[in-house]
Amino acid sequence: MTLRKSLEARIQQQYDRMAAHYDHRWHDYLDKSLHILQAWSDIHASHRVLDLACGTGEFAYRLLSQYPELNFTGIDLSSKMLAVAMNKCQSFPQAQFESANIQQLPFPDASFDRIVTSSAFHYFPEPVKALTEMKRVLDPAGKLIIVDWCRDYWLCQIYDWLLPWLDSTYRGCYTRAELRGLIQKTQLNLHHLERIRPNWAWEFMVAVVSRA
């Protein structure tokens, strides 16, 4: 088994174990981070949306409750997280969820108007490859929105030092300058990169990116 496959298997097992209680345990965190994601993603009913590392489908449920006919696709490595998402969104026929790898997305070129990912970029083992694949499936007029932890914040620096000791799947979060550099390597166009601190415990950064 390759190193990447081994990491993916460990991530899948870890989130399979958490799936049943994930929404309850992380309710406040999800509410804050997904509020930021929705505010910046500018999603409309006509958009084709891809959620990378969609987890329990909480973002899908929020969007679909507002836009029931939205064409929404969520991918994740954890089959049990996906099962929660499918159950949560079962009344929305346009929503689909599937197991897929971020570096080998099973979609044609230019398939989506919006690609979003929240609190997952720090798990991607090869972020440039992941961004390149996002670029491939993003419509030329579409946008990619990344919400993740920001290592410019001193407390996130502590998390970044501590978490590898507690979570063998954790890869590390980025500063704004580091994320900007990764985006530039893929020749994507960075429109906005902003720090947002919803409370004392967390600071996020949000990046809005396009192909053009």
UniProtKB/TrEMBL annotation:
GO terms for molecular function: methyltransferase activity. It comes from the Bacteria. InterPro entries: Methyltranfer_dom, Methyltransf_Superfamily, SAM-dependent_MTases_sf. Keywords: Methyltransferase, Transferase. GO terms for biological process: methylation. It holds the Pfam family Methyltransf_31. Residues 44-156 form the Methyltransferase domain. This is Methyltransferase domain-containing protein.
